[in-house]
């Protein structure tokens, strides 16, 4: 019998920021890298060091030690430093589909610039693993993934029950995605520290290996045993080769080697048994007691998630589409600037950053990064808009009008009421004193008659003037000094119906009153909002009866605000044992119509709850003593204080969505606020947008293992429940946590979670995680029948993408006033990207089938371009015929050549 081989891989799991601010971790990284480079030169027996699968570590090191670039390059060339394939180690579920794709795209490219990356999908500490990982890895040419969470290991001698789809008897398994892509999966069953700090003295080594070897053998399917020599921020073990020599002396039946993932994967994958388990889809610790799924990180510091959504939508859905279209007139594309914006954004995407589970200083710096990335995105979008509008032919509009262009960059047809502010007249500071100009224009405003809006053919477009005022602004010409001015601005409201995706339409504002539309969407006597599609009856207590008019079905008593205590931490919600939920509709409520126009109606609901000001003082003691949250006995304080919730309920004329903007000034601590929508439907599963898929999840937990009273889940843009004939879709903006409650199959959306500590392995107070101060959240609800479910999915995604409006003037141009750049013909295809290929001019589009069970017929067209199948890292797929029928859960990347 051959010896068992023990592969010892040196590494350090490098959280860039976590329980210390970024620069504290950063400086320790410099020490680690310095030690490594020295060790590579002085110890020829030291095989290599795995640099945690993220290339950003190289950037971070060279930022401080730029003179070490050549030395780093030599270490990579010699195979001493193992790098890639990702840019950062992200949290899968809390960043967008495209952000996950760009992490691999940028990481692989930059790793290959250095040398040969380790082709292993490395997810050692990700808080759950996305179901599309197998397909995404295959698309990038990666055949294996390693992960630390999500699968329950049962051990070699324990039979895996057939219905335990998230369990494996081995640390090695197959992992199958919803599209049936399949890769090798490696679970760190004894964590990624099972070979950390190996002793170099006989007595200690015997004690160490007598425990570690059986632990590894309990789950190993082959004679190749993996020992991970490192852990979080671990300094390199400089004497590891001495420890290995001693181990070989003490255990002659084993062969211990200092190794790397390339060699280990080759060995173990060539020696796998036939009885491997296959795990399927997303891996979120479904077979555990439910306490440490860490899904509540999706509601920690919700302000981070909201800002992340804002920046992702800016880059993915506004800047890149506009820049792609503008290339047709400029011949240039901001590749470098976009790479900078994306890398800056992704620096906020590691699992301890976007999850909101670090110390306050970390998240303060994150907000700065978000702002930087967003401003780059806005600047590039403005440049693209200027380039496009300069070539859009507006010569058909009269000289006394003010043309403007509306862009729908969502990729799909959209009905929306758009408000925009048009500059009517300006006077530069060169023409007079600012104060005098301001008052002069104010007087002119009084003399203006009403306005109307026309299209390129002179047809009057349904619109209304919201307000007219005077304000300061300025221009920044590219070839001369800034130009400050005062201007008259007219804010108008347009009702845009069926505007094609990825298109623009040009209108103009003209002075003069036209026939007014007098219809209304609100009945202020009954406080009811209603259009041809839906009705929302707002009751005296603030609850809403929603009626789907197309199906003649009412969903009663929705918009329930629920408040409970939270004595957990940034990772895990924990309600006090004796705590009872408080509901806003049990407290004083007022209703007020605040907008009543032919196109949009809004009602303001104000509810004043009385809730505890915080947890009782015992919680502070329990946190300082590092009580595990399940051991805590603290309850909520007896002192009650007012908590006012203001909700603007909005209905637009041609929309089936009812929209909500909820605001409150949070001065309370240690609590959670959710909004509930009972569906009353009977169904055992629900659907939520995840990464490149709409995943079906069970409504009920495995009662044999699950102990947590709650079952929180992640979402991207929406969650849906439906039966055979009716359905409800709840959309959100940056609200990534939901739960489906058994009572009335209720969708519960978390809109605030306020806690006072980081949690995990010690006591790290986080006062800013209490989210004190003014907060505002947005969400929406829509309804469907048997044939229009996917439409509500698309509308939920569009809820996050605004229309873009920009001013222009009268001029001749080569672009039509109305034009669709890209057209999609499909009822269940979601577009996620339109951009130029990295470092080139071809267009890249990407989308996915919204169904995991049905084929998707799709036709995508771009004038003057031909489509070719490509992979996720934008390489052509050789000899691959263009598919117009996409299989269930399939991600399709197309490369368009002119």
UniProtKB/TrEMBL annotation:
Gene3D superfamilies: 2.60.40.2210, 2.60.40.2220, Glycoside hydrolase 38, N terminal domain (3.20.110.10), Glycoside hydrolase family 38, central domain (1.20.1270.50), Golgi alpha-mannosidase II, domain 4 (2.70.98.30). GO terms for biological process: mannose metabolic process; oligosaccharide catabolic process. It holds the Pfam family Glyco_hydro_38C. The keyword 4Fe-4S does not apply. One of its GO terms (molecular function) is metal ion binding. InterPro entries: Gal_mutarotase_sf_dom, GH38_beta-1, GH38_C, Glyco_hydro/deAcase_b/a-brl, Glyco_hydro_38_C, Glyco_hydro_38_cen, Glyco_hydro_38_cen_sf, Glyco_hydro_38_N. Belongs to the glycosyl hydrolase 38 family. This is Alpha-mannosidase. It comes from Vagococcus carniphilus.
């Amino acid at each position: 019998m051959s010896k068992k081989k023990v592969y010892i891989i040196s590494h350090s799991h490098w959280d860039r920021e976590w329980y210390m601010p970024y620069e504290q971790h950063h400086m320790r990284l410099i020490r680690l890298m310095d030690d490594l480079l020295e060790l590579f030169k002085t110890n020829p027996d030291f095989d290599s060091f795995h640099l945690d699968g993220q290339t950003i570590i190289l950037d971070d090191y060279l930022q401080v030690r730029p003179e070490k670039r050549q030395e780093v390059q030599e270490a990579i060339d010699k195979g001493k430093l193992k790098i890639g394939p990702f840019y950062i180690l992200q949290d899968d579920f809390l960043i967008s589909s495209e952000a996950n794709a760009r992490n691999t795209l940028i990481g692989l490219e930059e790793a290959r610039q250095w040398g040969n990356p380790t082709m292993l999908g490395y997810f050692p500490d990700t808080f759950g693993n996305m179901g599309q990982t197998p397909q995404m890895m295959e698309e990038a040419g990666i055949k294996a993934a390693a992960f630390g969470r999500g699968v329950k290991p049962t051990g070699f001698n324990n039979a895996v029950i057939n219905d335990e789809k998230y369990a494996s008897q081995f640390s090695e398994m197959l992992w199958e995605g919803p599209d049936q892509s399949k890769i090798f999966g490696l679970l760190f069953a004894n964590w990624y520290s099972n070979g950390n700090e190996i002793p170099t003295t006989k007595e200690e080594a015997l004690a160490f290996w007598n425990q570690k070897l059986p632990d590894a053998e309990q789950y190993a399917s082959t004679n190749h045993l993996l020992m991970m020599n490192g852990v979080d921020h671990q300094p390199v073990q400089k004497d590891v080769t001495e420890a290995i020599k001693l181990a070989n002396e003490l255990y002659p039946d084993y062969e211990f080697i200092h190794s790397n993932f390339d060699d280990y994967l080759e060995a173990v994958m060539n020696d796998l048994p036939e009885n491997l388990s296959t795990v399927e889809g997303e891996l979120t610790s479904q077979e555990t007691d439910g306490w440490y799924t860490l899904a509540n990180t999706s509601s920690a510091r919700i302000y981070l998630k909201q800002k992340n959504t804002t920046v992702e939508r800016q880059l993915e859905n506004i800047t890149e589409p506009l820049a792609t279209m503008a290339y047709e007139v400029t011949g240039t594309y901001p590749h470098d600037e976009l790479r900078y914006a994306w890398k800056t954004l992704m620096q906020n995407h590691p699992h301890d950053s976007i999850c909101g589970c670090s110390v306050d200083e970390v998240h303060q710096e994150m907000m700065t990064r978000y702002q930087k990335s967003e401003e780059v995105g806005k600047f590039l979008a403005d440049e693209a808009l200027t380039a496009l509008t300069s070539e859009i032919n507006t010569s058909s509009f009269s000289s006394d009008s003010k043309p403007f262009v509306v862009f729908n960059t969502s990729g799909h047809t959209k009905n929306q009421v758009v408000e925009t502010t048009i500059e009517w007249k300006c006077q530069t500071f060169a023409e007079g004193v600012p104060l005098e100009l301001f008052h002069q224009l104010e007087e002119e405003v009084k003399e203006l008659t009403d306005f109307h809006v026309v299209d390129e053919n002179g047809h009057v477009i349904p619109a209304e003037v919201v307000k007219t005022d005077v304000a300061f602004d300025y221009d920044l010409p590219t070839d001369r000094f800034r130009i400050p001015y005062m201007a008259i601005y007219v804010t108008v409201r347009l009702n845009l119906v069926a505007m094609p995706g990825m298109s623009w339409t040009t209108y103009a504002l003209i002075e003069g009153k036209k026939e007014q539309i007098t219809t209304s969407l609100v009945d202020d006597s009954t406080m009811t909002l209603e259009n041809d599609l839906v009705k929302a009856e707002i009751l005296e207590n603030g609850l809403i009866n929603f009626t789907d008019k197309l199906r003649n079905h009412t969903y009663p008593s929705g918009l329930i605000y629920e408040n409970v205590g939270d004595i957990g931490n940034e990772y895990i919600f924990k309600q006090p044992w004796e705590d009872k939920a408080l509901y806003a509709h049990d407290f004083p409520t007022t209703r007020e119509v605040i907008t009543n126009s032919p196109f949009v109606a809004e009602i303001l609901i104000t509810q004043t709850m009385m809730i505890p000001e915080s947890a009782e003082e015992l919680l502070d003691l329990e946190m300082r003593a590092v009580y595990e949250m399940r051991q805590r006995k603290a309850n909520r304080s007896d002192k009650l204080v007012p908590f006012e919730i203001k909700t603007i309920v909005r209905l637009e004329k041609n929309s089936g969505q009812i929209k909500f903007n909820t605001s409150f000034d949070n001065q309370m601590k240690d609590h959670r606020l959710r909004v509930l929508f009972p569906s009353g439907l009977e169904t055992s599963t629900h659907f939520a947008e995840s990464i490149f898929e709409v995943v079906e999840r069970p409504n009920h937990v495995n009662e044999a293992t699950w102990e947590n009273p709650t079952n929180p889940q992640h979402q991207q843009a929406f969650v849906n429940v439906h039966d055979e004939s009716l359905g409800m879709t709840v959309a959100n903006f940056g609200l990534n946590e939901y739960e489906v409650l058994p009572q009335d199959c209720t969708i519960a959306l978390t809109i605030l979670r306020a806690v006072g500590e980081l949690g995990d392995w010690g006591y790290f107070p986080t006062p800013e995680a209490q989210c004190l101060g003014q907060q505002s959240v947005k969400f929406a609800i829509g309804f469907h029948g048997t044939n229009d479910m996917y439409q509500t999915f698309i509308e939920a995604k569009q809820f996050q993408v605004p229309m873009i409006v920009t001013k222009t003037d009268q001029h001749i141009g080569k672009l039509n006033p109305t034009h669709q750049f890209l057209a999609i013909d499909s009822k269940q295809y979601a577009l996620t990207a339109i951009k130029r290929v990295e470092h080139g001019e071809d267009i890249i589009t990407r989308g996915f089938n919204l169904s995991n069970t049905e084929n998707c017929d799709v036709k995508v067209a771009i004038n003057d371009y031909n489509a070719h199948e490509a992979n996720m890292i934008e390489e052509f797929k050789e000899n691959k015929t263009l598919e117009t029928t996409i299989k269930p859960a399939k991600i399709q990347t197309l490369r368009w050549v002119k």
